[in-house]
Structures are given as structure tokens and as C-alpha cells.
């Protein structure tokens, strides 16, 4: 009996599962009574569909898919229920606000687009066999959970803008959860939403992905081998790995933050749009099927499209291109190359071209434009609209009739007045190869050799080189400037050179090391993909690829006593490796060498003409020959035991740090570009001539035995360090840019620094200055150019040449904003400076105890009396005089310290100071004073504006700007108005 009961229970359960109701629940934003139309495809063979329109009344409909394809009804309640199993269901454009699907295992297609589904209100968890979901244009929908929908093949949740120019017109979807594995999804369209991330890795069958206009920071498509079209434009993506997408045919990744794009594996590409990124180089050598290329708005300096015979449309504007070869693009129809640096363009082989935009290419000349016009093909008819844009490319004097006669329509009409004759080319010879020049014939377009180095102005010139054995062409130079490729256009006489370098196998660096020692080197190549071979000492070769924009770090243990690095390297850092030798004579491409702190005893740089930066400090090389390094601009070679140094062959040198050697001579005669020179601690040098270094900004020449130093020609000098020499004088009157001065440890008399108004740091200790001499120094200091937080005036010292700082009058400097290292008490000098501040409407005459006139800047014996006589202008009288801010009484004062005398003269009518009925009003510089036992006061400008109002008890001091003020004072006995001048 028990077994039978259990059987019945199980049967009931099974029966319950098999007969569970299928249900689709809908809510809308419609008012009750509104009509709604649905398009269901039921599972039932009789087409029966049961619907509850919201009143719990089930109505039956027949949808046979032929005569009847939809059902319509009136919404009665809040929720509409479809109570039949479905194969497909379409409720689009029906103001639906939520959908919930329960037990619809046979539903494969759901269309609910153009509705108002909100937030997370699309619940399709009951339709796990769904294959197509079209829920696009639901602007409030935020979340799609498709984790369990592994049979879904097509997903369309896009948002179509109503205003294409409105960046805020986008859908609200922030999250789409796709199956983590085993997903059948083939196509996803989700553009113009707010996705910041999406995981596609569980859907390897995807061939179409459109995520345009979202908020994606990254996208991973490495698990999508079937991908044919990818659209991720208008996002925030910084990198894109396409190395696993060999079937990719269309790529749209414009308007992101890409700095590089590798499409080498994507040989099926036909459309590539990568505009408006930050891409600096683009290798398309493997992409011969491209028909549409848009790479405008990047940072490209070169672009090679010669392997794209099917190319029809090319957008490469807003880059830094100087030339482009279109000779292999016979089907090209449209070319946009505006805002570049083109100097010429040739469309001879583009017979079908009908649109050209080369605006704002300032490198184009009227003559190179004339050449371009002659390469154009004639059009069938003249267009009413511009199809040849030239503005900003110097077309005004070109002969645009050459183009208009071929039925092109131009935006600028040139008058043809430019003269295009011939120019001369001077070829610079080389022992490593030769080269020739050729130009195209204007009729046949075939190249012909240039005769007598005479070039047609505006016509492209082709350089062809023949190299010596073991060498290759690195690049070409025109007028000393490197050009991309081998083509240039001349409109004036030019100098042409070829730069040859050893082939990579012959270009190496040999390094002497200790066996079995850890080593670390930094290297960079001359090209974006430079192959480098490393032999750590045992003959085994390790090959790596490096770029030319970053420093690759090589780390390994030596397996012998010689390490060899081969390849076209231009940067080599081998510092702090305890190297015993370094041979760079076989690396002609080397531009930067850092071999700091090793055990190198010789350094041969005779075969490194490209060297621009050298640091060989802390080696025992003894001698350094830089005569073959004309491009050197930075030299650091301190602690190298150098006895002499000739820099006359390095005219580009901008900084030279050669301190701590044994130099007895240094030749700077040809280094007019030097901005930094450091020759400190070369005690045998004795003297240095820097008169030719007019660009010098920093000179460090401490401890080199100087007795004189002339920096009158170094007007750009910002920092001077000349400590620990035997200088007795130093004239800095011409160095008005000087900010920091170190002159301690000399025998200097006080320096007049009054012209150095930018000075903010001074080290002058240990010069044997007396207190009086220090006072002289302080007196001629300018006001400190900055507000110091720490000591910036060092004046004492610890040697036998220490200055008498403790008894100097440092307050002279402090009042100018300086912070001395010691506060002197002023007792060491028996004279003091007198400064007479200029005043308006009169002057003061000062006389010393001997009745001699004292002028501003004179010194007077301390503890003597100086008399003051006022010399007011006509109509004025002395109102007050002060010494160091204290009022002078009885027309005299006793000199105790450096004294600043000021005076104020007022209108003789007495309007500036009055005292009536217990109220006194007067002024000192910048201060209005009101004295009264108790009163109310108001201060006005002469125009009637209230400046201050308040109560005065005994005395009130008001800080005011210079001007004339009306003061009204009311006390118990009177109300008074007084006019006062504040200086």
C-alpha cells in the first residue's frame, strides 16, 4: 500500500510538471480601455491563443499565420496575460513597460522593440530556448540577463537616435550578461547604449558585433575566431587585440583612444575605419583586400597603401603625412588628405578618381600644385559642386585652369602667376654609397635621370641609392632634414644627402664582462619592429623584437667574458654593470650611450656619427675623442680622469657636465648652443672663457683655481656656482636673469647685486668679509624675488675666511624679504647707511654732525646726530617725518643703525591734519589715524563712497590705499568733518 501511494504522488508531480501553464505577462503605459495588437505564433496546430486582457477573463483566438496573423483586444486591467505556448511572439510598438515569460520552452523568437520596458523588467528566464531577441529602442531598459540563454543566436538591443547630433541621446542599458561558455550567439547589435563592459568570451560563434557609441573602456574579442564585422567606434577603448580574428572583414574602431592597431593577421579586411584615435604608425602590408580605408585624425607620419589594388576610398586627413604613393591604387575614386604636410601629390595612375580634398597642406606650393593638376584624369562632365578642394594649400597663384579644363570644380581659383623654373641640387658624397636623382616626364610619367643636378621646380624628385658592401640606406636628408621615403619636391636650391648604416648583421656592440655575472641592459631600436640578437657569451643566439618608442630591458647572466648585441640599435644603457670593456665601433646607428659607473679604460666613438647623448661618467678612460660626433647635444663625463677635452667639433652641444676630472684645458670655442656647463673640481684648469656662450643658463665652475671670471656676455644666466676659487671681484650687472648664486669660499669684496632683481638664493659665506662689508652687500641686495620658507642667504662660514656675520646688520637684508642664516646684531660696524625715501610735494635735507649734507646711500657714524630740514614745495608744508617708522622730534635723530627716513608733505591749508574738541585726525604712509576719547566715525572717499564706519575709543588705525579721504567724527561735544591725505 505504501509503494502504491508513493507511485501516485510521483505521478501527480510528473503530471503537474507536464501540464504547467505557459504564460507571457505584459504591462503597458496605456490607459484602461486602450486597444492593443499582438502578433503571436502559437505552438498549437489549431492556432489557438488564450488571452486575459486584465480582467481574469480568458478569451480564445485563432491565429493561423495565413488569414489571421494577429490578435487585438482592449486592455482592461494592469496586466495582460497570454496563456498559450508560443513559437514566436511580437509585442513591438505597444507601449509595453514590462515582460515576464513563464514556461515557454518552445519560444524561439521574441520581438519587443520600440516599447517602454523599464530597468530590469524584461524577464525571459522562462524562455531558455530563445534564438532571436529583438528588444531595441526601449530607452529605459537597463539590464539584460542572458546567462542561461545558450541557444540565443541573434540579439538586437540597439538604441536608434532621434537626433544624430545629440551625444546624450542614448539607451540606458548598462549591463548585458551573456553565457560564460557554450553560447550560440552569432550576432549582437547594442549600439548607442551605456555599456562600460561586456564579456563575449563565452560566445565563440559571434561573427557580427556592433557596440558603437557605448562607454566601453576595453573589449576582448580574442575568443571570437568567427568574427567578421566589429564595430566599436565612439567608445573609450585604449587597446584592441585582433590577433585571433583571422576572418575579420570589417572593422570600425574610430573615435576611441587607441595608440596602436595591429591588423597584420587580419588579411580578409575590406573596410578599416580607425579615424580619430592617437595612432602613430599603421602597418597595412598584409591587408591587400581593403577597399575602404579611413585613418584620418591620428598622428601618422607615414602611410603605405601600395599593396591595396582594390582601394576605392581613402581618408587620411588630419595626420602628419608628407607624402603618399597612390601609383598602385588604380581603382581609387575618393581621396581626403586635408590638414597634412604634403609637399606634392600624384594622381596619374588613379584614372577613376572624382573627389580630392587637400585643403590646409601648407607644404604644397603653386608649382607642386601645377604638377598635381597635370596628373589628374579628365571627368565626364563638370560637377556643380566642388570636387577638388584646395583652400589653405597655396593655390592662389597656381594655374587651376589645368584642372578646370579637365572638368574639375575647384574651391580656389588660381591666377597662374607663379613662376616655376629650375633649381639646383647639391649632392653630399659618402664613402658608404652613392645615389642619383630622377624626375617623371610630364607626358609619359616615366622617370628620367636629372642632368647636371638641375631639377624642375614643383616636380617630385626620386632618390635612388647604391650602397657599398655591408651597408644599407637608413634615410635621406634634404637641406639637413630627414624625409620620409625617397621622394621630395624642391622650389629652391637644395642639398641632398643619403645616410648609410651597416646592415643589421654587421651592426653590433661587444661588451667585456666577468663570467657568470648578472647583467642588465636597456636598448631601443631604430624602427617600430627592430630585430635584435643577444649572445650572452657562449655563442648561443637569443632573438627578440623591440620597438623605437620604449626602452626594452635585457636581463641575463653572462656565460663568458664577451657579450654581443647585434641589430640596428640607437639607444644603449649598460650603466652599473662592472663592464671591463665596451666596443661600439660597429654600431653606426647609436644615438644614445649610457655606460655610467663601470671599469672601462678606453672608449672609441669614432664610428658613431649619429651620437647625440653620452654619459660615460665614473670610468677610467683618461682621454675622450669626440671629433666624429657632430650631433652630440648632451655630454656627461665626470670622474673620468680626463686631462683635456676638445669640444670644438660638437656645435650642437647644449649641456656638458665634465666635473671632477683633471682637466687643464677645455675648448668651448664652437659651443655657442651650450645652456649648461659644469666644470667643477678641475683644480688645474685655472681659467675659463665663456664669452661665446651667450645661451648659457647654468654655469658651475667651483674649485677650478679661478682668479677672475667674466660673465658679462652670459645674459641668460639663471644659476652661477663659482665657489672655492680665488675671486676678489665679480661683476654680475649684466646677468639680470640670475636667480641663484653660489660664490662662497672666495676672497670677494662686497658684490653689487642691485641689478639682479630675480635673485632668490645667495651663498656667499667664507669670503672674509667684515661686518661693514656684509652691510654693504645687504644694502645693494635687491628685494628677494620670492617669499622664502627656508634660509636663502648664507653669510657665515666655518673656515678661517668666515664672514663677520654675527655682528653684521642682517636686518637690512631681512627688510628686503631675505632669510639670513644668522641674525647679526649690527655691533661690528661703526657706521650705518642712511636711506632717504623720495616724497611728494617736498624733500628733506639731512646733515651730519659736521654739518655735511647726507645723501641717500651715504654712511654716517653711529651714535651721531643727523639734523633734518624740510624743503616743501610751494603751497605745502611738512606734516610729519619718520626714521625707521618712528616720528622725528626736534628735527633731528641719533643714528643707531641703518636708517630709513621718510616724510609726508601736506597742503599748507592744514586739511590733512586737525585737532579740534578732543578729536585728532592724521595719517602715516598707508595708515589713517583717528584719536578721540570716545566717538563714532565714518570715512568716505571724495566721491562719497563709505570706506569705514565704527566706534573709536582712544585711537583707531585704518590701513588705507593712497588717496584723499573725508573723515566725519561725532563725539559728545561736536560733529566734525576733516579732509586727510593718505600717502
UniProtKB/TrEMBL annotation:
<dbReference type="GO" id="GO:0035591">
    <property type="term" value="F:signaling adaptor activity"/>
</dbReference>
<feature type="domain" description="Bacterial repeat">
    <location>
        <begin position="854"/>
        <end position="907"/>
    </location>
</feature>
<keyword id="KW-0433">Leucine-rich repeat</keyword>
<dbReference type="InterPro" id="IPR044060">
    <property type="entry name" value="Bacterial_rp_domain"/>
</dbReference>
<keyword id="KW-0732">Signal</keyword>
<feature type="signal peptide">
    <location>
        <begin position="1"/>
        <end position="20"/>
    </location>
</feature>
<keyword id="KW-0677">Repeat</keyword>
<dbReference type="InterPro" id="IPR052574">
    <property type="entry name" value="CDIRP"/>
</dbReference>
<dbReference type="Pfam" id="PF18998">
    <property type="entry name" value="Flg_new_2"/>
</dbReference>
<dbReference type="InterPro" id="IPR026444">
    <property type="entry name" value="Secre_tail"/>
</dbReference>
<protein>
    <recommendedName>
        <fullName>Bacterial repeat domain-containing protein</fullName>
    </recommendedName>
</protein>
<dbReference type="InterPro" id="IPR032675">
    <property type="entry name" value="LRR_dom_sf"/>
</dbReference>
Amino acid at each position: 500500500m505504501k509503494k502504491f501511494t508513493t507511485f501516485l504522488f510521483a505521478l501527480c508531480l510528473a503530471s503537474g510538471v507536464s501540464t504547467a501553464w505557459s504564460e507571457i505577462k505584459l504591462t503597458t503605459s496605456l490607459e484602461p480601455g486602450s486597444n492593443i495588437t499582438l502578433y503571436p505564433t502559437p505552438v498549437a496546430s489549431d492556432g489557438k491563443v488564450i488571452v486575459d486582457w486584465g480582467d481574469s477573463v480568458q478569451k480564445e483566438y485563432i491565429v493561423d499565420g495565413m488569414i489571421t496573423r494577429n490578435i487585438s483586444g482592449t486592455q482592461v486591467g494592469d496586466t495582460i496575460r497570454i496563456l498559450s505556448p508560443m513559437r514566436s511572439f511580437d509585442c513591438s510598438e505597444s507601449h509595453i513597460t514590462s515582460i515576464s515569460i513563464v514556461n515557454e520552452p518552445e519560444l524561439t523568437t521574441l520581438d519587443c522593440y520600440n516599447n517602454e520596458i523599464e530597468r530590469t523588467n524584461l524577464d525571459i528566464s522562462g524562455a531558455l530556448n530563445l534564438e532571436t531577441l529583438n528588444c531595441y529602442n526601449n530607452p529605459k531598459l537597463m539590464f539584460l540577463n542572458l546567462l542561461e540563454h545558450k541557444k540565443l543566436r541573434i540579439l538586437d538591443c540597439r538604441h536608434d537616435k532621434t537626433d544624430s547630433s545629440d551625444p546624450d541621446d542614448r539607451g540606458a542599458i548598462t549591463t548585458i550578461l551573456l553565457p560564460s561558455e557554450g553560447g550560440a550567439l552569432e550576432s549582437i547589435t547594442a549600439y548607442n547604449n551605456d555599456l562600460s563592459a561586456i564579456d563575449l568570451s563565452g560566445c565563440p560563434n559571434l561573427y557580427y558585433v556592433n557596440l558603437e557609441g557605448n562607454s566601453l573602456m576595453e573589449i576582448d574579442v580574442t575568443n571570437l575566431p568567427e568574427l567578421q564585422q566589429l564595430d566599436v567606434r565612439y567608445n573609450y577603448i585604449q587597446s584592441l587585440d585582433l590577433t585571433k580574428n583571422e576572418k575579420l572583414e570589417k572593422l570600425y574602431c574610430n573615435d576611441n583612444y587607441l595608440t596602436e592597431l595591429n591588423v597584420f593577421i587580419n588579411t580578409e579586411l575590406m573596410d578599416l575605419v580607425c579615424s580619430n584615435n592617437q595612432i602613430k604608425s599603421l602597418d597595412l602590408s598584409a591587408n591587400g583586400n581593403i577597399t575602404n580605408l579611413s585613418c584620418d585624425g591620428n598622428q601618422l607620419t607615414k602611410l603605405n597603401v601600395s599593396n591595396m589594388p582594390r582601394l576605392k576610398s581613402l581618408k587620411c586627413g588630419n595626420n602628419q603625412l608628407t607624402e603618399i604613393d597612390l601609383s598602385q591604387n588604380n581603382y581609387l575614386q575618393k581621396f581626403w588628405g586635408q590638414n597634412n604636410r604634403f609637399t606634392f601629390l600624384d594622381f596619374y595612375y588613379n584614372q577613376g578618381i572624382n573627389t580630392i580634398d587637400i585643403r590646409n597642406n601648407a607644404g604644397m606650393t603653386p608649382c607642386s600644385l601645377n604638377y598635381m593638376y597635370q596628373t589628374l584624369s579628365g571627368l565626364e562632365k563638370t560637377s556643380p559642386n566642388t570636387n577638388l578642394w584646395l583652400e589653405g594649400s597655396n593655390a592662389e597663384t597656381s594655374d587651376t585652369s589645368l584642372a578646370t579644363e579637365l572638368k574639375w570644380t575647384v574651391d580656389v581659383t588660381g591666377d597662374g602667376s607663379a613662376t616655376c623654373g629650375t633649381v639646383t641640387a647639391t649632392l653630399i658624397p659618402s664613402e658608404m654609397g652613392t645615389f642619383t636623382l630622377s624626375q617623371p616626364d610630364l607626358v609619359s610619367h616615366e622617370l628620367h635621370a636629372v642632368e647636371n643636378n638641375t631639377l624642375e621646380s614643383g616636380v617630385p624628385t626620386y632618390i635612388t641609392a647604391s650602397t657599398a658592401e655591408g651597408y644599407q640606406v637608413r634615410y635621406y636628408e634634404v637641406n639637413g632634414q630627414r624625409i620620409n621615403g625617397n621622394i621630395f619636391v624642391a622650389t629652391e636650391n637644395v642639398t641632398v644627402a643619403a645616410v648609410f648604416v651597416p646592415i643589421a648583421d654587421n651592426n653590433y656592440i661587444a661588451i667585456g664582462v666577468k663570467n657568470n655575472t648578472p647583467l642588465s641592459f636597456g636598448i631601443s631600436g631604430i624602427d617600430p619592429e627592430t630585430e635584435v640578437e643577444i649572445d650572452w657569451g657562449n655563442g648561443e643566439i637569443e632573438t627578440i623584437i623591440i620597438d623605437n618608442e620604449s626602452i626594452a630591458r635585457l636581463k641575463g647572466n653572462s656565460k663568458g667574458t664577451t657579450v654581443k648585441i647585434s641589430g640596428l640599435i640607437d639607444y644603449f644603457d649598460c650603466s652599473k654593470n662592472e663592464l671591463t670593456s665596451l666596443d661600439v665601433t660597429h654600431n653606426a646607428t647609436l644615438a644614445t650611450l649610457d655606460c655610467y659607473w663601470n671599469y672601462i679604460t678606453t672608449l672609441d666613438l669614432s664610428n658613431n656619427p649619429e651620437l647625440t647623448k653620452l654619459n660615460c661618467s665614473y670610468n677610467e678612460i683618461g682621454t675622450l675623442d669626440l671629433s666624429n660626433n657632430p650631433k652630440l647635444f648632451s655630454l656627461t663625463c665626470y670622474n673620468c680622469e680626463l686631462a683635456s677635452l676638445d669640444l670644438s667639433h660638437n656645435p650642437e652641444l647644449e649641456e656638458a657636465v665634465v666635473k671632477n676630472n683633471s682637466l687643464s684645458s677645455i675648448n668651448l670655442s664652437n659651443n655657442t648652443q651650450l645652456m649648461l656647463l659644469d666644470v667643477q673640481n678641475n683644480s688645474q684648469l685655472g681659467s675659463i672663457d665663456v664669452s661665446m656662450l651667450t645661451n648659457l643658463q647654468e654655469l658651475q665652475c667651483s674649485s677650478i683655481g679661478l682668479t677672475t671670471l667674466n660673465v658679462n656676455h652670459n645674459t641668460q644666466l639663471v644659476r652661477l656656482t663659482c665657489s672655492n676659487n680665488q675671486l676678489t671681484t665679480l661683476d654680475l650687472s649684466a646677468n639680470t636673469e640670475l636667480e641663484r648664486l653660489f660664490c662662497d669660499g672666495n676672497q670677494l669684496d662686497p658684490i653689487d647685486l642691485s641689478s639682479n632683481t630675480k635673485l632668490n638664493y645667495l651663498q656667499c659665506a667664507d669670503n672674509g668679509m667684515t661686518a661693514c662689508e656684509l652691510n654693504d652687500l645687504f644694502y645693494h641686495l635687491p628685494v628677494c624675488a620670492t617669499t622664502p620658507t627656508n634660509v636663502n642667504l648664507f653669510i657665515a662660514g666655518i673656515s678661517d675666511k668666515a664672514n663677520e656675520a654675527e655682528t653684521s646688520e642682517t636686518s637690512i637684508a631681512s627688510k628686503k624679504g631675505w632669510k639670513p642664516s644668522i641674525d647679526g646684531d649690527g655691533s661690528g660696524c661703526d657706521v650705518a647707511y642712511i636711506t632717504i625715501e623720495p616724497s611728494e610735494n617736498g624733500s628733506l635735507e639731512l646733515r651730519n654732525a659736521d654739518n655735511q649734507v647726507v645723501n641717500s646711500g651715504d654712511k654716517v657714524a653711529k651714535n651721531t646726530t643727523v639734523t633734518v630740514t624740510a624743503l616743501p614745495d610751494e603751497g605745502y608744508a611738512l606734516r610729519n617725518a619718520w626714521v625707521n617708522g618712528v616720528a622725528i622730534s626736534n628735527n633731528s635723530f641719533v643714528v643707531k643703525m641703518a636708517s630709513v627716513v621718510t616724510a609726508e608733505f601736506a597742503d599748507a591749508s592744514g586739511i590733512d591734519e586737525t585737532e579740534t574738541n578732543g578729536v585728532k585726525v592724521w595719517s602715516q604712509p598707508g595708515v589713517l589715524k583717528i584719536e578721540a576719547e570716545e566717538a563714532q566715525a565714518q570715512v568716505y572717499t571724495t566721491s562719497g563712497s563709505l570706506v569705514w564706519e565704527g566706534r573709536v575709543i582712544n585711537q583707531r588705525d585704518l590701513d588705507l590705499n593712497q588717496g584723499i579721504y573725508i573723515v566725519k567724527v561725532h563725539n559728545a561735544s561736536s560733529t566734525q568733518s576733516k579732509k586727510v591725505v593718505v600717502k
